[in-house]
Amino acid sequence: MRLDKFLKVSRLIKRRTLAKDVANASRILVNDLVAKPSKEVKIGDIITIEFGTKIVKVKIVSLETSIKKEDATSMYEFISEKIKEN
Asked: Are the C-beta atoms of residues 62 and 75 closer than 8 Å to each other?
């Protein structure tokens, strides 16, 4: 599954176009490497997303093409969240 689609379906990022923009700005890492929106992700990959001052790290546990909003968090395992130091 493409990175931008995973981020949208899992609802880590609300819209796919926004996920593309964030990835193109080099603010998303997959397994500690800068990732483009078209990067193929798989179960077990670690995704790090920089949201302004917040950095969120999650592990992919399932790849669903569509899922109910309330079940979206079952697609990933939360690892950490920290405030970015300036």
From this structure: yes
For 57-86, write each residue's pLDDT tens digit: 999 999 999 899 999 999 999 999 999 876
Q: Please, is 52 exposed, middle or buried when counting C-beta atoms within 10 Å of its C-beta (0-12, 13-18, 19+)?
A: exposed
- Encode pLDDT of 15-42 as tens digits: 999 999 999 999 999 999 999 999 999 9
Could you give the C-alpha distances from 68 to 24, 33, 34, 78, in angstroms and in order?
27, 30, 29, 18
Dist. CA 82–CA 18, nearest whole Å:
21
DSSP-derived 3-state class of residue 24: helix
Residue 79's CATH number: 3.10.290.10
Q: What pTM was estimated for this model as a whole?
A: 0.91
Please, what's the largest Cα pairwise distance for the chain? 37
**Which range of residues forms the domain containing residue 36?**
3-83
